[in-house]
Sequence to fold (619 residues):
Amino acid sequence: MTAAAHGRARSDAAKPDPAPPPRRRVPYGATLALLAALAVAAATAGTAAGSVTIPPAQVWGIVLHAIHPALADPTWTPVRETIVLDVRLPRVVLGGVVGAGLSVCGMALQALVRNPLADPMLMGVSSGATVGAVLVMTFHLAFAGTFSLPVSAFAGALLALVLVVALARSGGRMTTVRLVLSGVATAEVLQAVASFLIVTSDDPHKADAALRWMLGGLAGSTWDLVWLPALAVVAGTAALLGVSRSLNLLLAGEEAAAAMGLDVHRFRAALFTLVAALVGTIVAVSGAIGFVGLMMPHVVRLLVGADHRRALPAVALLGAAFLMAADVAARTVIAPEEIPVGIITALVGGPFFLWLMRRRAA
Amino acid sequence: MTLVAEDVTVRAGGRALVEDVSLEAARGEVVGIVGPNGAGKSTLLRTFYRARRPTSGRVLLDGEDVWRMKGRALARRLAAVLQETPGEFELTVYDVVAMGRAPYKRAFQGDDAADREVITSALAALDVANLAREPFDRLSGGEKQRVLIARALAQEPDVMVLDEPTNHLDLRHQLDALGLVRELGVTAVVALHDLNMAAAFCDRVAVLHRGRLAASGTPRDVLTPDLLADVYRVDAEIDVHPTTGTPRITVLPPVSG
Fold:
């Protein structure tokens, strides 16, 4: 090649603006450390804030003491210890798990349908979970004790998943367009079913609780509810990291991915099932919290690029930090009343979505 | 590596897109596929890189049916340069070329020094090393095309399948791209629009017409005024270029009466 001879001659004459200078990004390690620090700060704030404000130092003292008694001397009242360990911490951890999980799912889903506007809440699964949850609330079902609601919500999510996949398949293949369309259609129908159940419910309190659940929230979290989604999110994120190269290939387009050795149809089906099951697990405990899975991947791509090997760990950290922070706002803005955290994420996410749309159109 | 198509037929919706096409690219040979729009060039190539299974017939790589191989195993030996491009995801040029290493990697396996060297030299070979950190989506069409060829190079293939690789390229880069394919010494099957390019760079050309093989052989034997009149419905004069010694095709404007 005679690179020197023709230099950087532009191949297309009709290119209006010169190429932007190569982006200088913060080193990846530093970005990751920063996001981790952000998550820790959000978690600390989440545990400190509430009807009784507990100083951050004391929060850490209590947590460290619980991990190992030698790590901190107890200078606090047992009541405060209970507040931190049994009331606030499970909620904060669940917020982190849900935020990380939705963000990771959003990123995988956007690669899956090769559309940066995909959101986990758009694929029908969350609406299925909603129907399951609303059924339990409006008909006072209690087949599994305190777990009735999450179990029923998860069952609803799985049923929706089966429905969406069955509708999207045609001749053993699942095209992106059919996947999106059947997801949206299923979501609409199930949403209507849930709304019908709420509207026709004769108990206004149950209807109110169902509505709150639909908006998403982390109130009433207990350790019992945390561990299963936490395990699912950690395992799911690890699995996605394992296939992060294949996720990259999906961005190249179906044919190019096939030419680089990816069994596109099988991979897509497996990925969709994994993501849907993960979203189902999350929605079952938190309700349908929107926009997190849409926004976080975009922010992370701006920070560390679109390569999933780098972006997935970053998006998990950022998502966790964001939802924990949003939950602090949900609890404190009109304290002692609480706003469903889904309202906060929508208030932040809606404008972000519009900004994104206008930026892409430019 | 020899790539052989054996009676390949592709049908869709009762229509044959490709019908009974047989051709062979011997080791190190550059074979051009030419033909008018809709002649089945891309469809035929798709059956080579496992994007479209032939309705009947086989595609053999050194005697092995590519449709019975594992996708990854094939991708280590055969790379494709396609028209389709990534969109809207802010991948850098380096990220795009690095995808070419995927067939060599297992889950959780990162790029090692050897991979980075392959990627870097592929970038350099296509004259895009200085764009490595730029977002792929903001490149010009020609730059994108070169990056996609670099990605195919990063697969370290023995056979390359290229679907109109010179689209969007200016003259200099057209020559460079095709010259590079020749220089690599890989077996190559290239769909081309420009008959003069095909005549200059291909050892043999295969002419597709309505999904069927209309002719195949050396450019000198195949590219005749009769064939062009038949397949492209144009009048052309063909002589031997005084400098290069390759056939020169001059399409004549239609005589208006």
